[in-house]
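ugh finaly. both done.
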Amino acid sequence: MTYKMVVLDLDDTLLQDDLTISSRTKEALFAAQEAGVKVVLASGRPDFAMHPIAEELRLKDFGSFIITFNGAKIIDCKTNKEIFSSMLTPETAHRLYDISQREGILIQSYLGDEIITETPNRFTNIEGEITGMKIKLVDSFKEAINESVVKALMLAEPERLAEVEKKLQKELDGEISTMRSKPFFLEFTNLGVTKATSVEHLIKKLGIKREEVIAMGDSYNDLAMIEFAGLGVAMGNAPDDIKAKADFVTDTNMNDGVAKIVENFILNKIIFNN
């Protein structure tokens, strides 16, 4: 199979634990792009936090794209314009706030380049560190969120959030997409919005077949695109249940797992034992 697109999650996939891209991975991705393969970044991060990585990989020069907010937006790196977006209404965000209060857990959302939350907490601080976004503390979440937003996150210790996730997937079934991006992040987007749906939208626009796509990720918000792609790849550091549903399991994010897939399946270098 000749692959024409590689879709990459960022954290714990493309990025090493120190949030950098290894030189081997960068070299492989440049070679793939020089060969005409689209390299697309797909993350739960906002676009603000993805642009520096897109610039590092020269996606603008190669006419590629980023998928942000777990699929809620697609941005053309060459023009910096949105070619797709799907937003939560203020009413939906307010409903999610009410649910978070009922469940006794935290919630945050995004306006512009700021994270909006009522309560200082370590989970929002982690998001701020990952994305580089400013955290804005507000007296009233509902008053602050007075326009459509791309997504909302509920935050809690992993065990508690797992309980809430199971409950809300039933309660909100058929209304809102619910997925976990990290053990302590439960994300909500418009119904049907996933990384996979945005990849599908993009390949239709570009005339690329599903079978010609490689998608790589490590977490539950990556599962839909891993299952959608012609070659769905789980990272070596992914949970076992993600690995079980992938077509292929590569090495970890700390051991050039992305580079090894690109080298083997796109650049045709048989080096997987190296």
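ok and the 2nd:
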Amino acid sequence: MIHGPSIGIGAGITAAVILVAFFTLGMTTEKELVIEPAPTIQESGPPKVTMMTFLDNGSPTLGNPNAPITLVEFGDYQCHYCNVFFHNTEEHILKNYVETGKVKMIFKDYNIIGPDSVTASHGAHCANDQGLFWEYHDKLYSNWSGENNGWASSENLFKFAQEIGLNMDQWSECMINSKHSEVILASNQDAKMLELTGTPSFFVIDPNNKVTKLFGAQPYSQFENIFNSILEK
């Protein structure tokens, strides 16, 4: 499935990808891991938080779309604690809850570390055009090596796209044109509307649309307790 870019794009493609437009986003400092009350869904009056604030402008759903519980993660691909969650906790959630049809997952962008975070988000959304969002998402976290140290450079993002077998002409054109800028920016605005101050931040939505918020790379046991309490009702 892997094939090189056309002559029209050629060897200069990674340099062109560097031209992807970046958003100017506020930088925040990671906080201690805490569980916080979820924002109240507002019926009227600005700013308006609705269920779509949690669900829109994100990744494709991972898992059974009819699963009773929805887990939404707001993350930054360069974030240290997001990487900790990916390696220490997400695998257990996938095995015990997503693959068993109890939980479905959505990933949303909150780019707070630096410009490479935004480019990485573009890479994942461009991969989604070919049905490989989660494969690219996993590739990014599997190659994490720090914050703002160059691992998520345009050249590396290009290489990651090749490694998961994307059509490189299509992916590269998507990157050069910043095709998904509006979705990424909207996701960041959703995070700000929810008053998030760092990543990762999680929202667990039960079948009655009750929302529970967890902040930081919480251990698996925290998610397990919340999921089980919902499923036992």
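summary for the 2nd one i guess: The radius of gyration is 18 Å.
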